Amino acid sequence: MNYAEIKNCDIANGEGVRVSLFVSGCTHHCKNCFNKETWPFDYGRPFTAGTEEMILRELAPDYIDGLSLLGGEPFEPQNQAALLPFLRRVKELFPQKNIWCYTGYLFDSELRQESRARCEYTDEMLSLIDILVDGEFVQELYSIALQFRGSSNQRIIDVRRSLDSGEVVLYTPKSGRIE
Length: 179
Hints:
The chain has helices at 49-59, 77-93, 107-111, 122-128, 159-165; strands at 2-10, 18-23, 45-46, 66-70, 98-102, 131-134, 155-158. The protein is an alpha/beta fold. It has a 7-stranded mixed β-sheet. The longest helix has 17 residues, at 77-93. The radius of gyration is 15 Å and the shape is globular.
């Protein structure tokens, strides 16, 4: 897997102060994607053991709330293969920190059911993610007023509660409301 960028102090892609990993490779190709340079799977730099160690060091301070995965597309099967062992390490070393993931795939109809995204890594990867922002970016539904998402079709999902209940449970941010 390659990655496009790592932000060590990100406040836009999830609640609190985060470390954000932008993976390369995406087959959605959403109209007016904010990060279209990440579409090719070979864009950027290789995600190596050294890259993992650097991100783990960046996650260590108490003021860092967690990790955010963006893209590109973290749930492309070849990206899942590289991300799953890394997410295991993050949860093992930092169980108090949360993991947010942004995906163009829909939680209930593409990640939980047979689709091109679903593979042998998907269920475990979902079990390690706390919050999932799902759905492709749709330019016609774009609003700058939306919190943690680009278009109003995208949902902010509490993954653990959704997996436990068998139904999509939307996440309520610490502010108490989603705009």
